[in-house]
UniProtKB/TrEMBL annotation:
Keywords: Stress response
Gene3D superfamilies assigned: 2.60.40.790
Organism annotation: Bauldia litoralis
PANTHER family: PTHR47062, SMALL HEAT SHOCK PROTEIN IBPA
Record protein name field: Molecular chaperone IbpA
Amino acid sequence: MRSFDLSPLYRQTVGFDRVFGMLDSLGNFDGAAQSYPPYNIERTGENAYRVTMAVAGFGDEDLSIEAKENTLTVKGEKKDQSEGEESNVLYRGIAARSFERRFQLADHVEVRGASLENGLLHIELVREIPEAMKPRTIAINGNAKKQVEAKVAA
């Protein structure tokens, strides 16, 4: 009973197709395939976030980050080290397998930068809501005319 039929909801809603698509994809979740590399998502300010991924063994040249249409994609592909360098590894416990991790970003979330230090990839995100979409106060103008009584000085 892991499958839910959301098709009746599609008929009665407009503009929520992305939300239902995300719910559908939760049913296809394979925990084993999605566990590498481990990551954290933290809030660093009111509209600022940071995604931190543990990418031990990967360098700048092995990683690529792409932001496209509300999706942040991080790919890691280790270059073959056997070229020109003879290696005699007795035990390999540090995973260096290729990966691709996707994050769905909310509307108006932008990637500000990324840094790699001590085996951790930090991706800085900021949510910037356009001025036209921010809440604003509307003044109420009444149609009633104000009458001011003038007192005559004696």
